[in-house]
Design a protein that fits this description.
Blueprint: E1 13-17, E2 21-26, H1 44-51, E3 56-57, E4 66-72, H2 75-86, E5 91-99, E6 106-110, E7 113-115, E8 123-125, E9 134-143, E10 148-155, H3 162-169, H4 183-186, E11 194-202, E12 209-213
Parallel strand pairs: 4-11
Antiparallel strand pairs: 1-2, 2-4, 3-4, 5-10, 5-11, 6-9, 7-8, 9-10, 11-12
Family: Belongs to the pseudouridine synthase RluA family.
Active site: 62
GO molecular function, one term: RNA binding
């Protein structure tokens, strides 16, 4: 069954641009790259290439996840940035709102992940066959009225759906998550409450460490 992505009317915010790189804030509901179906051609890269024709994708965010992404504006910049992601030299931090109270103020989820093939694109924890996956978390705020926790998430690895599955594994699914949250938790938000809020890397020209911060609007 082909999934057709609903139109996304939100704009892409340009956070930073120079001759080598582009840093943007992707809205929730917009693909990072085109989908297989021709009806899913609208995405971040095709929109950006209207004004930045040389823009090249370095990494991705899920359709439902909003937040910071960096793109290369030439082949060398793309290679430089891609290597940093491959070597885990890029700093990434997310904010999420999850169901219930996380009792620990901080901690980590170390749980290997594998594709739940009959239910793809869902992923699942598999201690025997999964690929290593590690997420650090830190509680920002506990909301007594809504019975929710706002948490900062720092993935050490970059597995598909890692943050969503690890929060579910911890017993606290992310609010608004259509893949992993129970219906009552999904219904608490019309979008996934997950946002890539911090990104740091070395600039391709200067090797200067650059840091960007973009707080979520939820």
């Amino acid at each position: 069954m082909t999934f057709i992505v609903p139109p996304c009317d939100a704009d892409i915010d340009i956070v930073y641009a120079d001759s080598r790189i582009l840093v943007v804030n992707k809205p929730s509901g917009l693909l990072s790259v085109p989908g297989r179906d021709v009806r899913n051609r609208d995405c971040l890269i095709t929109r950006l290439q209207v004004d930045f024709p040389e823009a090249r994708i370095v990494h991705r965010l899920d359709l439902s996840t909003s937040g910071l992404m960096v793109l290369g504006l030439d082949a060398e910049a793309h290679r430089h940035l891609s290597r940093q992601f491959e070597m885990r030299e890029v700093g990434k931090s997310y904010q999420a709102v999850v169901d219930g109270f996380i009792e620990e103020d901080s901690g980590a989820v170390d749980a290997p992940l594998i594709c739940d093939w009959p239910n793809r694109p869902r992923q699942m924890v598999d201690n025997d066959n999964g690929k290593p996956a590690l997420t650090h978390f830190e509680v920002i705020h506990r909301d007594d009225e809504r019975q929710q926790t706002r948490v900062r998430l720092k993935p050490h690895t970059g597995r598909s759906h890692q943050l969503r599955v690890h929060m579910l594994h911890l017993g606290h699914p992310i609010v608004g998550c259509k893949f992993y949250a129970p219906a009552a938790v999904r219904a608490q938000s019309d979008r996934l409450l997950l946002h890539a809020c911090e990104l740091s890397f070395a600039h391709p020209d200067r090797d200067e460490r650059m840091h960007f911060d973009c707080q979520p609007d939820f």
